[in-house]
Amino acid sequence: MDFTPHTDADVHAMLTRLGLAEPNDLFAHLPAEVRVSGDLGLPEPLSELELMRHIDDLGARNTPGLICFAGGGIYDHYLPPVVRALTLRPEFVTSYTPYQAEVSQGVLQALFEYQSMIAAITGLPVANASLYDGASAGLEAVNLAVGHTGRKGVWISRGLHPHTREIITTFARARELQIVEHPMVGGRTAWAPDAGPEPAAVVFSQPNHLGVIEDYDAAVTLAHGAGALAIAEVDPMLLGVIRSPGAAGCDIAFAEGQPLGNPMSFGGPVLGLFTTTMELLRRLPGRLVGQTFDREGRPAYTLTLRTREQDIRREKASSNICTNQTLNAIAAAVHLAWLGPNGLVEVGRQSMQKARYLAHRVTEIRGVKLAVEAPFGREFPLLLPLDPDDAVAAMADRGFLAGVPLSGDYPELPGGLLVAVTEKRTRHQLDSYAEALEKVVSDA
Amino acid sequence: MPEPGGRATASPLMGGSAEPTLRDLSSPGRQAWSFPPLDVPDGDIEIPELAPGPPALPEVAERDLVAHYTRLAHRNFAVDLGAYPLGSCTMKYNPKVCDWAAEHPAFRNLHPSQPAHTTQGALEVLMEAEEILCRLTGMARATFQPPAGAAGELTGLLIMCAYHRSRGRKPGTILIPDSAHGTNPASVTLAGYSVAQLPSDERGMVDLDALRTAVDDDVAGLMLTNPNTLGLFEEDIVEMARIVHEVDGLVYYDGANLNAILGVARPGDMGFDIVHSNLHKTFATPHGGGGPGAGPVAVVDRLVEFLPGPLPVRDGDRLRWEMPASTIGRVHGNHGNFLVVLRALAYMRALGGPGLRRVAERSVLNARYLESLVSEAYEIPYPAPCMHEFVASAAALKRQTGVRAMDVAKALLDRGIHAPTVYFPLVVEEALMVEPTETESLETVEAIAEALLAIAGEAAVDPEHVQRAPHNTPVSRPDDALAARQPVLTWDMERGGGR
Asked: CA A330, CA B31: separation in Å to the nearest integer?
């Protein structure tokens, strides 16, 4: 295929004006030693139909139709068709970052509304226009806290998503930050008040990675007592049911935003939600849209507080982020508006009730129990009497994506399997899951 | 008046009436959502930290939603509407068949934690795309975890850091030309290095003597875009890489401008060690109003062990995940922006080797042709042959008429053409950075040139009209000072004191 519209006559006419004979001459000024001379071994071009067949063939190598009980940030919620229909409007899909506000009011207003709704559900006054994903949003939160406090200690709950902890650790190594991990006891973080060094941030997840609901006050009081920022990762789909991080006194909240409007997509593109207080506004990473007026006094939207950003502040910027996840944020906004206040409560409530039902069903299986006895949200940790990777493989043969094995990230939980439930699962699927797991356990 | 065939210039059809916000459209009790009734036992949810009530979200019907977002879309310019010669951003046409691939149900419903034996197709997508990317860049292996160019830069710098630490060294400075993108120095700071800036010489290229002077044992590496942000190929690149390698420094390729050299020249053959590419530029994945992108990082053999992981590896006829031996760890929560990679793979396979090279040829042809037309009215401060983009200056125009680069950009919007990048790179006064891309026709390129020349002509006659542009867009220039002085960042914020 060829997406360039030039005819041979066009190319000839253009080269002639430039005083060149052939396309190769366009590169005559490149040093000979760096010009490709041989064959790079690239594939042959494909027609559109051949290409579609190839993609179909690759897709057919994935196991189809697994019923999803995996979570850990990425969840299989019901995604209404209207979300894709509106998000995939070509005016949103094929535009650049809205630097030219006069011809970008659509994207700008959609982001302003996204910011408004993310602020509303997290209970914090300011949201940015999205970050890459939940994990990198966690990293940006830590970076903000380090800059704000001038300290190098970072206290992290072991209940924070293992991938978020890993990214923060990757970054901390380069920046020489001191990470202190606080253990979990009985499924909740057991904060150690004198863990030293002086923390810039106290970071935890609500619910935590095991699905258990944490004590907000314990973390927030500890953070503020130590002069640190309280930073919470949240599950956006539970914010109709669980108290918001803003109401609990957190300084920063971040989240993996995929469940809002985005398919699971093998984990990307998704989006990171990031909200904070007015006090920290000038340190906010990422883009911000503000409302203003044009020359005629009409309401207009524009990218604002740009002096935080890399293209203006260069090495002194609050973050290096440039491209973000705007289209995913628009999808999140459409979905949130589709849900409205009561729909968000309903999706959280149904997910949690179904999780309770499934937890009850599977713990009736001989040898299967909850890893911790503590109130959970829509996700819970099971202890299985077999290797959870083997259990997941055997369950896949029976048509289920059984959950996310925990034993790799939490060696203290051998046999640990994190099971997530959404409102999309039917009672029949929950019952079938329990029956399949019973077979897998008894076969082991 | 109808435009000649083949011209992608949208006379603005965009919606002129202000659109209310979703909150303005909200009415208590209205609802779009529906879920099946709960089919498991209900009852009070007994948890600590219960929310006191529903969050304050708008309440709208689905019909309101559809009308609202469709009207918002009408207030937005896009590649699908017309020419978008935004320098450095490679706003080429995004093929629809690649959209189709990204929406494929066999991929979009995969969970990132699925066992590898159930996602063999997805791993194959990553392997195929990696192989093509490595052949195009002259690198050994690549990671697709970085979700954007800036994330790729940070990843590359963390790899540099790990490499030097493994050799018992701790150099602290990264060299960056003064024409570099802002993400370069911002990433350097984030990675814990300090920045040393290299001046450009009279050709608009890195000053080789300045580089020789700047390189010492504290230098960890050099970050470079090639062609650089002036659209010029750094002709001394091989010598530059040699100088940096002499102190065991690494040379980083910022792939923002890779489009210009696809299949023509390879960063690996120039001496680069680490290469990021922007799939949302070079490989035609759409920008989505600002993202998602993807910024894969490819490295030479000796750096493979430091790559983020897990990486897919072949094991007989199966693929599995493996952590590189001395990995820097993850840089994304999952596997990066996978569906963007799938789109890019579809694009690369559609074009194949000849098509990819044609991208470079025609993007350079369009840019150089447009430059030759535009130079009748605008200065070209660095006259070396441009690659896929060129930087013109409105400095003379400003002196003669008072019309600035920003005014020229805004006046282009009135003519149904997106503005070029302005005031960048910083080394050019009143810069207009123009990148037509290879997917615009000869007619469109000429229409862009005619518009730029007409604006220069108008500036001479009626500069005020140009300075007040745009005139027929959904809004005129917004009051950015007010937006920053009294920020209104959500619909709950009130502007103190009014206008």
From this structure: 19
Q: Strands (DSSP E) along A246-315, which ranges? A: 252-256, 272-276, 289-293, 299-303
Strand partners, B86: B434
Interface touch B439/A3, C-beta < 8 Å = yes
B275/B372 same-domain check: no
**Do residues B274 and B376 share a domain?**
no
> Is the same domain home to B263 and B167?
yes
Chain B nearest CA to A33, separation (Å): 8
Query: Which range of residues forms the domain containing residue B386?
Result: 355-482
Q: What are phi and psi of B320, to 5 degrees?
A: -140, 170
Sign of the dihedral defined by the CA atoms of residues B307, B311, B314, B320, in that order:
positive
CB of B289 within 8 Å of any CB in chain A? yes
CATH of the domain at B323: 3.40.640.10
Q: Are A300 and B475 in contact (CB under 8 A)?
A: yes
Confirm or reject contact between B13 and chain A (CB < 8 A): no
**For residues B335 and B308, what is the distance between their CA atoms, to the nearest angstrom?**
10
- Note whether residue B374 is domain-resident: yes
Phi, psi for A116 (deg, rounded to 5): -65, -45
Looking at this protein, which amino acid is placed at residue B98?
C
B340 touches chain A (CB under 8 A): yes
- CATH label of the domain that carries residue B416: 3.90.1150.10
Where in the sequence is the domain holding A124, given as residue range(s)?
81-335
The shortest C-alpha distance from A193 to chain B (Å) reads 22
- Residue finishing a domain among B350, B380, B412: B350
Distance separating alpha carbons of residues A238 and A348, to the nearest angstrom: 5
pLDDT, tens digit only, all 499 positions of chain B: 455 667 776 655 677 789 999 999 999 999 999 999 999 999 888 899 999 999 999 999 999 999 999 999 999 999 999 999 999 999 999 999 999 999 999 999 999 999 999 999 999 999 999 999 999 999 999 999 999 999 999 999 999 999 999 999 998 999 999 888 888 888 898 888 999 999 999 999 999 999 999 999 999 999 999 999 999 999 999 999 999 999 999 999 999 999 999 999 999 999 999 999 999 999 999 999 999 999 999 999 999 999 999 999 999 999 999 999 999 999 999 999 999 999 999 999 999 999 999 999 999 999 999 999 999 999 999 999 999 999 999 999 999 999 999 999 999 999 999 999 999 998 899 999 999 999 999 999 999 999 999 999 999 999 999 999 999 999 999 999 999 999 999 999 977 543 3
Domain harbouring A157, CATH code: 3.40.640.10
State whether B342 and B250 are in the same domain.
yes
Alpha-helical (H) ranges within B206-320 are: 208-214, 237-246, 267-270
- B376 shares a domain with B335: no
Q: How many structural domains are present in chain B?
A: 2
Q: Please tell me the pTM assigned to this model.
A: 0.97
The one-letter amino acid at A367: G
Is residue B162 in some structural domain? yes
Q: Provide CB contacts within 8 A for B89, sequence distance 6+.
A: A96, B281, B287, B421, B435
**CA A159 to CA A208: how far, in whole Å?**
5
Residues from chain B contacting residue A332 (CB–CB below 8 Å): none
Residue A179: strand pairing partners: A154
For chains A and B, CB pairs below 8 A equal: 685
User: In what side-by-side order are the strands of the sheet with B297-299?
Assistant: B141-143, B297-299, B274-277, B250-255, B219-225, B173-177, B194-198
Residues 6+ apart with CB under 8 A from B177: B197, B198, B199, B200, B206, B224, B228
Q: Are residues B113 and B258 in the same domain?
A: yes
Query: What total of structural domains would you count in chain A?
Result: 2
